[in-house]
Amino acid sequence: xxxxxxxxxxxxxxxxxxxxxxxxxxxxxxxxxxxxxxxxxxxxxxxxxxxxxxxxxxxxxxxxxxxxxxxxxxxxxxxxxxxxxxxxxxxxxxxxxxxxxxxxxxxxxxxxxxxxxxxxxxxxxxxxxxxxxxxxxxxxxxxxxxxxxxxxxxxxxxxxxxxxxxxxxxxxxxxxxxxxxxxxxxxxxxxxxxxxxxxxxxxxxxxxxxxxxxxxxxxxxxxxxxxxxxxxxxxxxxxxxxxxxxxxxxxxxxxxxxxxxxxxxxxxxxxxxxxxxxxxxxxxxxxxxxxxxxxxxxxxxxxxxxxxxxxxxxxxxxxxxxxxxxxxxxxxxxxxxxxxxxxxxxxxxxxxxxxxxxxxxxxxxxxxxxxxxxxxxxxxxxxxxxxxxxxxxxxxxxxxxxxxxxxxxxxxxxxxxxxxxxxxxxxxxxxxxxxxxxxxxxxxxxxxxxxxxxxxxxxxxxxxxxxxxxxxxxxxxxxxxxxxxxxxxxxxxxxxxxxxxxxxxxxxxxxxxxxxxxxxxxxxxxxxxxxxxxxxxxxxxxxxxxxxxx
Length: 550
Known about the structure:
Layout: E1 2-10, E2 13-19, E3 24-29, H1 37-45, E4 61-69, H2 74-82, E5 90-98, E6 103-107, E7 110-112, H3 114-124, E8 125-128, H4 139-149, H5 153-199, H6 205-216, H7 218-234, H8 239-256, H9 261-286, H10 292-312, H11 319-382, E9 389-396, E10 408-415, E11 423-424, H12 425-428, H13 431-448, E12 453-457, H14 465-478, E13 483-487, H15 491-494, E14 499-507, E15 512-518, H16 521-533, H17 539-549
Parallel strand pairs: 3-13, 3-14, 8-12, 12-13
Antiparallel strand pairs: 1-2, 1-4, 4-5, 5-6, 6-7, 9-10, 10-11, 14-15
Protein name: DNA repair protein RecN
Family: Belongs to the RecN family.
Function: May be involved in recombinational repair of damaged DNA.
């Protein structure tokens, strides 16, 4: 529960220190005294957005600190432990707002961001504002109220997560489908090119080129080979014969001078090499066949290789590398198809999960809608709308849309006159009727909230008399299970409080300040009398105030 609140230089509050008790605390005061300022300050301590306008005129900064007793609040303790923040019996939330609009937030003395402050605040306080009934004009809030009443926060959060995931996967799949269309065209082209390369003798390109050149020049090779062979070993004056005579002469010289021995040996080796070359050349000529069919085959293969090289803009020798690159790209495209299949499977799984949780939520909504109708109708009678009818219309949505709200929308339907068919709340309820229905919904929702502190900021606007007394009793009953802080103009509501605080505004020469006073019994009677009677307070009014208080 909220143990105390400290406010400094906020709006028209110079400094305020307030200790709070369990049960129902009421806050009253003249119009414009600043009753709701304390609620606004607490909202900022809980993470609401703020600007420099909240800083008191002439001050450098506004400071708000709220101390909560969390000894029995296990979820709060778990959250603090998860965030690695101090976990003591008391939890202190502090917000500092500078005059330039910047702000800092602290939990138990440690700096935090506004998201953390807001998350923790959701475990501690629920604030119902005086203008909350205006949200009933928006049908989208009706489903939120129903889900809150049905305690579906965990399920609806899971549904929203699934909806986002389905939307994200669907977007990826759509993008993949578009890209796969282009990739399929690319794959068809690559497959055709690969088949061409696989059929062509690309691994023998160098040999084919050489064989083609040999076959194309076979006649010339034969002619020149024969000429060379005759010159080496077959003419009358061939090189072998001439070299033999020279070796014979050098051999005679060697008998006379051993100095020519080296020359003799070299010439002898040359003769052996030339004779060996002659044998190889003769063998080459004998096997130099001129086959027109072979040449035609080689010519076709070489033409094909040249065409493929030109098509892929590489040399014939590089065609095997081109084939390997095409195979790798095709393998990658097959991997993209696998990714697409995986996404489709994941989408189907998420859609199945969505359908299961959405169906579960739909059943819970239908059941809770009936119970909510009963409770609202009962409170409407207590609040002076005895002939009121309240219904929750659940309208199915497209099951294939996988929307974040689930399989239906909700709209509150009312009738406040006998014989009138229920119509959408935004169309038929008057201002006074709307505020009462809103109050009934807030009280009912408050009963389902497992939070330590509930704040009602002038939610009783537009009611009075016996209806106000009933509202006061309803809030007092809530005070038995949670701490209630109620800002009110109604004496019948204020009289039900276990603790009574009065806000007063004092004006000085250069400033206006708001002060808060805790009232004892006599002071409460005077304040209630003021609220009942206005300017002139008679003994009769005081006696009425005493009766209300008793």
